[in-house]
Amino acid sequence: MASFSPSEVALTGFGVVRKNPQAVLIWAALIAAFQLGLMYLMVSQIGSALTELQSFKGNGAADGARALTLFGKVGPAYALIMLLSLPYHGVLTAMMNRVVLKPKDSAFGFLRFGADEFRQIGLTLLMFAVAIGGYLVMIVAMVIIFLVGGLLKNAAGDFAGGLFMFLGVVAEIIFVFYALLRLSLASALTFDQKKVDLFGSWSLTKGHSWSILGAFFLAMIIYLVVLLIGYVAIFGVAAAVAAGGGGDFFQTMFKPDMSSVAAYFTPFHLIVIVLGAPLAAIAQPIIYTVAPAIYQALTKPEY
Questions:
Q1: Measured distance CA(205)–CA(194) in Å, rounded
Q2: Exposure class string for 217-253: b at 16+ Cβ within 10 A, else e
Q3: What letter does residue 108 receive in the DSSP assignment?
Q4: Among 171, 170, 148, which Cα is nearest to 160's?
Q5: pTM of the entire structure?
Q6: Positive or negative CA dihedral for 30, 36, 39, 43?
Q7: Would you place residue 250 in the very low, low, confident or very high pLDDT band (cuts 50, 70, 90)?
């Protein structure tokens, strides 16, 4: 049986960044463009509604009606933003699979928009549909757990009923994480086999759950440390700029003025987006290359 080292897999992203500095610059430009475009769309379409919701008091029936009106404006815009995010996610996941599984295909920083990307979008939609189905099953299971727990409570006491409900909820949470681990190679499998395949990952990951968990856990720790160090520096620069311009850092950071595009895109937010893009271009491979690296180790150990 093929195997892999969780620590080596978790460090794949660093190797990718080190070997492909020009690609990282292209990724940073893509991330910056996407984030700037997304924020422009959000602020221009629903910025005034979001600003009003930030300071909403919610007193009385009139305010409740106004809140429903505002949410009615915000909801469709968020749905549009999620829809527009699908191509971006498809490009990103295909790109990270390509850099690991096809390292010689490095033109344009591994960036493409073709059949591979559309298959990743299709996989995302399939996963979303399965997640909805799984969520409904979990609700039914939760109702059964609490019904049985209530009966047990009446028959054997509060402790027995409470313990049964607690263990039932924990079992559901464990199963969700287990299922996510078993399906974690679906993106790499879809990219390599050139067909949408979600459940093929289940058999591929058999016997490797603990190693996969260890690899993702280590990668997540590294990812968070990189983001923490990077954003401390970025926010330090942005805070200095905000203070120099007479602005309030905490107000700008946690309650930005989204009443207009000009009001939102202050030097503070532009610095956070522009400097955050190369940070994301360095950090995202740490997470996104774990699955293709595991897939390569299990299916193509000669590489």
A1: 19
A2: ebbeebbeebbeebbeebbeebbebbeeeebeeeebb
A3: G
A4: 148
A5: 0.85
A6: negative
A7: low
